[in-house]
Amino acid sequence: MTRKLYYDDPMKREFDAVVVEAKPAGKRCDVVLDCTCFYPEGGGQPADRGSLDDIAVLDVRKQGEQVIHTLERTPETDTVHGRIDWQHRFDYMQQHTGQHIISASMIHVGGYATVAVHQGEQYTTVECDTAEIAEAQLQQIEELANETVGRNLEVRTFDAGESEIPRLELRRPPKVGGTIRIVEIDGFDRVACGGVHTPTTGQVGIIKLVGLERIRGNLRSAWKIGRRALYDYREKTSIVNTLSDRFSARQHQILERAEKLELALKQSQYNERATTARLCALWAEQLQRGTTVSGELRIVTERFEAEPPELFRGVLEALIEQPSTCACLVNVEPQRVQWIIGCSPDLRLEFDAVRRELLPIINAKGGGRHSIWQGVGSEPQHADRLLRCFAEQASRFVGNFG
Hints:
It contains 9 helices and 23 strands. A hairpin with a 3-residue loop joins β12 and β13 (189-192). It has 3 domains: 3-84, Elongation Factor Tu (Ef-tu), domain 3 (Beta Barrel); 90-233, Threonyl-trna Synthetase, Chain A, domain 2 (Threonyl-tRNA Synthetase, Chain A, domain 2, 2-Layer Sandwich); 281-400, Roll (Diaminopimelate Epimerase, Chain A, domain 1), CATH 3.10.310.40. By secondary structure, the protein is an alpha+beta fold.
């Protein structure tokens, strides 16, 4: 049996221990000690990190009453000095204790029971048994949680037998039987839990709601707790200050300035689309004047030089609005060539023939549907040859419906 120092004194960072067992585990070594500060993964809280005699501890897990430490290599002595990664450990002590405070606050404010919890690397999530919580209640939950932190309540742990459980009025029923470890926040919360917690609520620090998500008919809330909340606030303050400088505005004016900028951008984009559409129509009209006519079929080809894709396609769409028209356009860039082929709705294009006979000219791939096909080729130096071949053979690829 391993003595669990992380329960005796959760603030302990270093310890000395005797190696009870050390056995190979592939290229690593599994070590059992007579006592340990290393918390094994469990209950949603990740395992501690750190070292034993400067040998990295890669994993910690519980097996029965023993705690197994997976090391990079076998210790050289029968006694070891352990150091846990305190920043990692204390972060998750804050997360775990903070989650207890949040879950209890949800019960106190609205009777919302916690059904799932996840302590992630970025934030802690709490899923409760309701699909909706009003904004005012969410603020009350956050306020109560931080008030509980400020009261610096004692966090106690004790073991209880099954017969004692009913009178303890736990926040939720325990999932296991036998002797159960209880975590109690003085006068505020009491629940079965095997995790490691801060000795007082004041050590948890800031608790801040940062997101909501509806899942499986429940509401999942995301929280920044402790140092994570400080780092998050620091980052957001930096962003706000930068925006304030760029907009030459005070903090409360930033949203208004951003909304005005968004409206101006939308108007600019609308104007740009309208201008592009007019330009495409004029360009198409000019190209149609030089149309090659084969029987009743009007054939249009044109070479563009690194034009925007929306302009390139827009010209083709304008061209094929005219009946009995087919067109092949290329947009030449230094290392590639874009191609697009289309025909008016009264025509049909045998694209398989085009793919087989024309696309190899520029080593191209692509496809499409309805009346437009497009793609990219890797040999722009042969773009003019593609246009000539299309103009010469278009009548073979295009026919009338009916």
